[in-house]
Design a protein that fits this description.
It contains 25 helices and 30 strands. The chain is an alpha+beta fold. Bound molecules: pterin cytosine dinucleotide (MCN) and FE2/S2 (inorganic) cluster (2 copies).
């Protein structure tokens, strides 16, 4: 142990700790400075950054023995406070720099150090600084962060006032369509918002800390599990195995379609008979400290008989492959698509046909915050589970039978989350902490390392696709044939639904009268398939958007004009036969056309013998909602203090559920003129919130938005007197008028049938993406120089939220196109190894253009936005690479060696 005096945020603080403890842990645990976040834990993300003796340091890798007595430390808490914000924090709010906010304190302190050194940085200086100091953000696409630093610098220099900085924030009146900051912004920029790991430090002392015993092979039979040595280790209270699970020990995958050959009960909470994938949980050690739990986990002996591991769909589909779940074929679901006439004769007679094989792989979500959760019994005896769940009611139903706990006896709470991007549509650790709490009778806490986050949470499911198109010489599409295999990993969770996305979105955006195709869901031993932003559309539309470019070349048409000829207009139908609710693609293409022409000209001018430039486009379409009559419920309550609280489960990944719910409620309540400050949102607790449904499929603004609107209208009706004046709370109570009202909305939609035909979504999002790239011929390295996105997401409810969604999604699309992967479990288990896009990989030049076609079914005309920027921009990038240098990439990511190999062909 050592004792040191540190000078922290202007005062001397004494710390007593182990020699080998990290500075990050000491700041967090000994000094309660929880603005210091632990993301990667290995110096790759910058979320633990503080200023140490005037220099920026990532504290997760610094041992206390290297810290000198009286070292001066500044953390985000020392930069500004909620009632005295520093200009950097204010600028972060003004530019919507904090989405999930997990990276925010690290960026703020990094900017603070930069501005101490350089009061007038250029944008490139700021970008170089964040790159050098490894400040990583997964939500914002970085551009708003550079905007914020530039503005903060101007305020610090005296070139701008604080009021000028906040000029776009309305102080009264309507907030719809403005840059009104999200309610959580101040807590995020000051580092005072408690995420799961911060709450973990504040749990009762008796809370047990958990460590997992995990499989290190991908497929095996379990012969025995010996916990005897581990049980004797210091501090260990219990080693929990499948034998301690009261219920079925399975998480149900909630099979959507009856033709699915599985029963959905395929995912063990704790492995009993078999290991199905690398990282599968076999036991949970519960101990007094995390260190003791981890040490004991090493001592659990698991005897395994390894089985052949099928690490891709084609491998698992081989005739001699054994069944991964005995009794269920590895190909367990088939989805057909049949629209219009048979396609074989059309292909036979068509002027032009074209065919391509495409692959979009196992993109990892890579939130900066690793998965974290805890569980306890409340005073009513209910099992309360806190996690990053973005589907609390859904997850309770998925885990209750496995735990052996009545559904009514489970309360789910969502902690503030540092990004999920969809992986939390699956339960991850909810059942694990539930089991551990039930088996020990104590509160329990579990925090994954970033390595566990990467290797043991779901990933985007790879699609292996073959697509054929037939057209006439004028470029009119006549027919399409598709075939796709979905590698869904070992667990069935929504795998059938994902497979349906191939039927709905290969060829989306174009009026194709005749389609035939078949897709299938395949069980493999690689990482289980969970939802990921875009959910099937980035795979599906990659195939059709790259093939459209290939078709344009074959016909001799410009790729934009070929698209223009075929996009949805009145009378067109989607691949599932639905009438699109608005027809904005021609206008979006018209908007992009001059920019595309300019981009092609720029590319020709700037290309050199060594570096070729090019421009490419793609259209993107995605539906907002869960298929069919997707439903959400909400409630509102007026309390004595005059506050109206909105209750629903609009789960906040980081996208801005709070600002979405607030803006929608404020607009719905506008006949009463209630100021936004008088509306509170409560979104994260199933014991308080009616079921709004999960935050997937960019559904919340549309579906929950409509439920909030309906509730608001009911509230206005209740609170308005006959003479038009408004009741106070006391008057309502006196007159026995209920102060709480409920509201609900169901989409007027139908599920798709066995041929993929139906009206699954009430609203869609539409976009056209233009990418400009530079390809180094010697290395094959591609740089995205600029992205322009023209989008129609209906009415913009909040400008900061929408722009933030677009920038962040575009950055993820660049990652998907060029670097991101989780194929190689070893190599891709770190942020750097998996191709996480840092700031210099993302262009500062991103241009957003919006048209706002009011959606008939959307609340106040709004559609969704979250997934639009990850539908197809990666296809635009791949098309731009071809335009630049003639290398046609059909297999993502387009890492330099792949581009080089194509160039050398
Ligand atoms: N919005 C708006 N105007 C519109 C549409 C939306 O202002 N016309 C706002 C909404 O109020 C909300 C945000 O934009 O703040 C996204 O709304 P919506 O498209 O309805 O999506 P959801 O709220 O259902 O969010 C989920 C969606 C999905 S499916 C994933 S995955 C995702 C995403 O949004 N994961 C994210 N965005 C993310 N952003 C961050 N920072 N982190 C994630 O993990
Ligand atoms: Fe320290 Fe990532 S750099 S937690
Ligand atoms: Fe940067 Fe979420 S706001 S990681």
């Amino acid at each position: 142990m050592l004792k040191k005096m540190l000078h922290v945020n202007g005062v001397d603080r004494m710390v007593i700790c182990e020699q080998d403890e990290t500075l990050a842990n000491v700041l967090r645990e000994n000094l309660n400075l929880t603005s210091v976040k632990i993301g990667c834990g290995s110096g790759q993300c910058g979320s633990c950054t503080v200023v140490v003796d005037g220099k920026l340091k990532r504290t997760c890798t610094i041992k206390m023995k290297r810290i000198a007595e009286h070292t001066k430390i500044v953390t985000a808490e020392g930069v500004g406070t909620p009632d005295n914000l520093h200009p950097i924090q204010l600028a972060w709010i003004a530019h919507g720099g904090a989405q999930c906010g997990f990276c925010t304190p690290g960026f703020i302190i990094s900017s603070y150090a930069l501005l101490l050194e350089n009061q007038s940085p250029s944008r490139e200086d700021v970008r170089d600084w964040f790159q050098k100091h490894r400040n990583a953000c997964r939500c914002t696409g970085y551009k708003p962060l550079v905007d914020a630093v530039m503005d903060a610098a101007a305020v610090l220099r005296g070139d701008k006032t604080r009021d000028e900085l906040m000029k776009d924030v309305p102080v009264e009146g309507r907030i719809l369509g403005t840059k009104y900051p999200r309610p959580s912004a101040v807590a995020k920029v000051t580092g005072t918002l408690d995420y799961g790991a911060d709450l973990g430090l504040k749990l009762p002392a008796e809370t047990l800390r958990c460590a997992l015993v995990q499989a290190e092979v991908s497929h095996a039979k379990i012969i025995s599990i010996d916990t005897s040595e581990a049980e004797k280790m210091e501090g260990v209270v219990k080693v929990v195995t499948h034998k301690d699970v009261k219920g079925k020990n399975r998480i149900t995958g909630l099979i959507t379609f009856p033709s699915n050959k599985g029963d959905g009960w395929d995912r063990p909470i704790l492995c009993d008979e078999k290991v199905f994938q690398f990282g599968d949980a076999i036991a949970i050690v519960c101990a007094d400290t995390e260190k003791h739990a981890k040490a004991a986990a090493e001592k659990v002996k698991v005897e395994l008989e390894e089985l052949p591991a099928y690490m891709s769909a084609p491998e698992a589909m081989q005739d001699d492959a054994i069944e991964i779940h005995p009794g269920t074929p590895n190909t367990y679901f088939v989805q057909k698509v049949a629209k219009g006439d048979e396609t074989a004769p059309i292909f036979k007679d068509a002027d032009v046909t074209i065919e391509g094989d495409y692959y979009v792989g196992r993109q990892p979500h890579m939130p900066i915050e690793p998965d974290v959760g805890f569980a306890y019994r409340n005073d009513e005896g209910k099992l309360v589970i806190h996690s990053k769940s973005i589907g609390m009611h859904l997850h309770a139903a998925m885990i209750a039978p496995g735990l052996g706990e009545e559904l009514d006896n489970i309360v789910m709470v969502m902690n503030p989350a540092g990004g999920t991007f969809g992986y939390k549509f699956s339960p991850t650790m909810e059942a694990l902490v539930g089991v551990a709490c039930m088996a020990t009778g104590k509160p329990v806490y579990l925090n994954y390392t970033w390595y566990q986050q990467q290797t043991y949470t779901g990933k985007r499911s790879p699609f292996f696709m073959n697509v054929r198109m037939a057209a006439n010489n004028e470029g009119k599409l006549l027919g399409m044939e598709t075939d796709w295999s979905v590698d869904h990993g070992p667990y069935s969770e929504f795998g059938d639904l994902l497979t349906l996305r191939g039927a709905q979105f290969i060829g989306a955006g174009y009026n194709i009268d005749n389609i035939r195709g078949e897709g299938r869901t395949v069980c493999t031993n690689h990482a289980w398939g969970s939802a990921f932003r875009g959910y099937g559309s980035p795979q599906s539309e990659f195939a059709s958007e790259v093939l459209m470019d290939e078709l344009a070349e074959k016909i001799g048409m410009d790729p934009l004009e070929l698209r223009y000829k075929n996009v949805y207009r009145k009378g067109s139908t989607t691949p599932s036969g639905q009438d699109p609710e608005v027809y904005s693609l021609p206008e979006l293409l018209d908007t992009i056309r001059p920019k595309y022409e300019a981009a092609k000209k720029r590319a020709a001018e700037l290309s050199t013998a060594e570096v070729k430039r090019g421009a490419g486009i793609a259209i993107g379409v995605y539906g907002c909602g869960l298929d069919g009559p997707d439903t959400a419920e909400a409630a509102m309550e007026l309390t004595e203090d005059g506050i109206i609280t909105v209750y629903t489960t609009w789960h906040d990944h980081g996208q801005g559920a709070d600002i979405g719910a607030l803006t929608t409620a404020h607009e719905a309540l506008s006949p009463m003129g209630i100021p936004a400050e008088k509306i509170r949102v409560c979104l994260n607790d199933t014991s308080k919130c009616p079921n709004g449904g999960p935050a997937g499929g960019s559904r919340s603004q549309v579906v929950i938005g409509r439920a909030i609107k309906a509730t608001g209208e009911a509230m206005v009706a209740s609170m308005t007197k006959a003479d038009g004046s408004i009741y106070t709370h006391a008057e309502m109570v006196a007159e026995n008028i209920p102060t709480r009202v409920d509201g609900k909305w169901s989409a007027p939609c139908t599920d798709c049938d066995e041929n993929g035909q139906g009206n699954p979504f009430a609203c869609y999002m539409y976009g056209v993406f233009l990418a400009e790239v530079a390809v180094e011929l010697a290395t094959g390295k591609t740089t995205v120089e600029k992205i322009t996105a023209a989008s129609d997401i209906g009415t913009i409810m909040n400008q900061l939220a929408v722009e933030g969604q677009m920038y962040g999604g575009l950055a993820q699309a660049i990652g998907l196109a060029l670097t991101e992967d989780f194929e190689d479990i070893k190599k891709h288990s770190t942020m750097v190894g998996a191709g996480f896009p840092y700031i210099k990989q993302i262009p500062d030049d991103m241009e957003l253009i919006f048209i706002e076609s009011k959606r008939p079914e959307g609340p106040f005309g709004a559609s969704g936005v979250g997934e639009l920027p990850l539908t197809s921009p990666h296809a635009a990038i791949i098309n731009a690479i071809y335009n630049a240098c003639g290398a046609r990439i059909r297999h993502l990511p387009a890492r330099p060696e792949k581009v080089l190999a194509e160039l050398n062909k």
